[in-house]
Amino acid sequence: MDIRKIQAPVVTETVKKLFMDMNYNIGSDILDALNCARENETSSVGRNVLDQLIENHKIASSEEVPICQDTGMAVLFVEYGDHVVMDGGSFEDAVQEGVRQAYIDGYLRKSVVSDPVFDRVNTRDNTPAIIYTSIVPGDRIHILAGCKGFGSENMSSVKMLTPSAGVEGVKKFILDTVKYAGPNPCPPIVVGVGIGGTFEKAAMLSKKATLRPINTHNPDSRYAALEDELLGEINKMGFGPAGLGGCTTALGVNIETFPTHIAGMPVAVNICCHAARHKETEI
Amino acid sequence: MKKITLPLTDETIRELHAGDSVLISGTVITGRDAAHKRLYELIQSGEPLPVNIDGEVIYYVGPAPAKPGHAVGPAGPTSSYRMDKYTPALLDRGLKGMIGKGARNDEVVQSMIKNGAVYFAAIGGAAALISRSIKKSELLAYEDLGTEAVYRFTVEDFPAIVVIDSYGKSVLVTG
Question: What pTM was computed for the model?
Fold first, then answer.
């Protein structure tokens, strides 16, 4: 395979388009799930909320304005082909510039502060984005990007379960996390679950799980069944749309896994609001 | 659907009950985490506030930037519980209502009962839709906070639901 040169401005333009697009146009998986929930919701208040959410997506898309004012912190999972060489700048700078341009030119809210504890001064361009890069064979760059609002991010949790907890322990932790979040994370939510790996790997997997379309399942039938079971249990909790009651508390549960240590069974639950915004592309 | 006009009178507040859907018209002030922290610290140290909150309704929001021709960008509610630490002090200063989303703690509810205040929820994530009912936005204080600055919004038929009324009754489902 030949070495492939990719111009840094191409990366910038691609990232910019991804973030503007995801903020205006919700994925068809979410829209289909909202429409389906609208048909099945038993609470009239809940149906009314779902109507407003569906109408909101129409407005955002047609006027090209953000679906939600919280346009989130930018997170990218990049698979970088080992035959790709950046020309005209570094990959990191090109991505950050794309995020900067999207948030400024796209009228997206800048929600990032420079220091988490002391200064908390807004960086005014929503950078830095969080970039997870893995090197893969090939001459392409695959980018999976999401913008993560913090109303739901704040309701997320990681727990270092140990093997004896078993699948029941995993279920309990996930359900407890959703129950504790209650009406706060803008239900109906998307629940991203990462199981295995190490402390940080589980958390990263749970983020990646929120970026997977909710009309897909984990390829392992046991985890796929667990996704369905948990979705059913969560929707029995009764929080409903906006937490005002109903049978639509979650739209989807996505589980991602990774091998782990003989002594451990880390579980991370990343909660995402109904505006689960993500897009992917390949350069 | 009840139509209510701001500023809220004590009589209006008494007639609002948890579960009521309302359309709000008039003006509200905005403020979220950073502005609340500043207002709270001024109250604690006995200094004057840069905005009068007596009789006002505060909307927990940090809007997205307005596109040309729009009064305001998408502007849905943010989670209210983050303001819980500061809210009783603001209610004691005469704040009459809050618009946000999600649960409040018991200190806030008790302070609402004591001060005769009401808590509305707007629909989280319906920001583009909600912004259509915001007709005007003027900066009031804390410009340096950007989206977290305090604005005065003029609203017309702003859709909300009374989730905790001045009697402390709530329709929010909590865990």
Answer: 0.94
